[in-house]
Amino acid sequence: MPPAPELISPRSARVSAARRLAKRNFRGKDRLFLAEGPQAVREAAGHQVDGVPTLVELFATVEAAERYADIVGEAHAAGARVHLADEAVISDISTTVTPQGVVGICRFLDTPFEEILAARPKLVAVLAHVRDPGNAGTVLRCADAAGAEAVVLTDASVDLYNPKAVRASVGSLFHLPVAVGVPVEAAVAGLRSAGVRILAADGAGENDLDAELDQGTMGGPTAWVFGNEAWGLPEETRGLADAVVRVPIHGKAESLNLATAAAVCLYASARAQRAFGGCRTVTPS
Q1: Looking at residue 282, what is its pLDDT?
Q2: Closest by alpha carbon to 268, among 190, 216, 193?
Q3: What is the layout of strands, in order, in the sheet containing 207-208?
């Protein structure tokens, strides 16, 4: 059994180092980020990259350490330093209004884009101009749920490790490869060279998602390119795609928000790929 941790001082250098990770420049310098809440920390504790554990440190209130004893145990097993802290310390480190008592410090875990291409992915979400961290994390969660093999954040999109993006992913950040900082032109060219069809999601698209499904064009490897929350995709980005596809609006709603549209598109591809003749179809040998 590991020794019981002592209550850490609010003036500790460890607390100061954790607090500064709320800022992007310090995250980049230290190559560390915050994971807040039991779900994210639990996923982090069980995650590793090339045999190196992702979770570095865990801060928890006494009450949270008792409630989430399994997380504390996994953190110890991963070799992470575990600190007990009072609620004021957790609030100081956390970026949420109502912290849940556990905050982890994690190593960066983004994957080189070349490794994603080498894996020949069948379904990819490309966040081309997504600026809102909550939307970015939610799209990542949708991609994970739909069975995508990768997510790509271009150099025009928000920081993957923004605390709000990490929270919005609800642990999905630790489930699938994510490449960051890839120019959109390079992302499209690389995926196309890997045999992936590029679809740009845009409310003004000439192609209708229902028609694509009816015509049987959705069963192959696909990358969906998603744009900015307010103004969608610029013309030059739409021009890179093999098709620009709109989600049909059958009711009176003016539009769908980014995360909802992404979920519809990704699940449409996932369903088509698993149908007879799709790229994920399992045929008897």
Answers
A1: 61
A2: 216
A3: 178-182, 150-154, 123-127, 222-226, 197-201, 243-246, 207-208
